[in-house]
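Subject: Protein record for review, amino acid sequence with backbone structure tokens
Why sent: The fold of this protein is of interest and is recorded here as tokens.
Notation: Tokens come from a learned vocabulary of local backbone shapes, not from coordinates.
Attached in line: The record itself begins immediately under this heading.
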Amino acid sequence: MSEKISILIADDNVQFGNLLQEYISRVSDMDVAGIARDGLQAISMIKSLKPDVVLLDIIMPNLDGLGVLEKMSSVKSGNKPSFIVLTALGQDIFIQKAMALGAGYYIVKPFDMDVLVSRIREIYKYKCYTLFNHEKQQLKKKTFQDSHSFKHDMETLVTNLIRSVGVPPHVTGYQYIREAVIQVIKSPNILYSMTKILYPSVAKKFNSTPQRVERAIRNAIDGAWKKGDLKHIESTLGYCPNKIRSKPSNSEFIALIADKARLSLGIE
């Protein structure tokens, strides 16, 4: 939107339209983008000029004001102007119809010009507020979708890594390792508090105990090293066994999987 409030006047009364243009042009924060003399011209000028606010008469040739509102009702809210209906028709049926079709205000002629200026500012401010909230909601939605997608990618990658090193899904330790790795990816520092934080956190999720979690993870790692392809495991995880210990500890194994996943996901 521009700095000044851009206004389109849609009224077939030439004298009244010119009077409106002259008065509004003297208002410092408003600018008259154009004057439409009938409904069809109003539709065309709305599309080409993209005004912020349209001052719309009901009785116009070719297409009346209600017809303009009907045609504009199918346009997305962020791309259409706000409408203030200015008319000598004060019957409730016209007012209700105009408001139902999306008019923001309905002012019956004759009226005070200062009141009109005040209504233009109010409806413009409301449009900006609504648009801002819509964009904020869209951003939140996108952020949620992105985070949901990232979570799915992370869980899939961790699952594939654990299976690739020979930990089968049916063993109890599998689900504990998977959960532990995901938690470490999110918060790497908990690796330094395996017994105080990580094991209890995993145990709580699966209604188990820290001791059972630790033991099940150990058994799963032992099983993978006994039955798996050691060269593949070592190349996948980058683990180099030494003379004292041929298998990684629980914390080392979880750290290796987590590091591999973080690198693949591009997390620093």
Remarks:
- The domain at 5-138 is CATH 3.40.50.2300 (Rossmann fold).
- The longest helix spans residues 113-164.
- The chain has a mean pLDDT of 84.
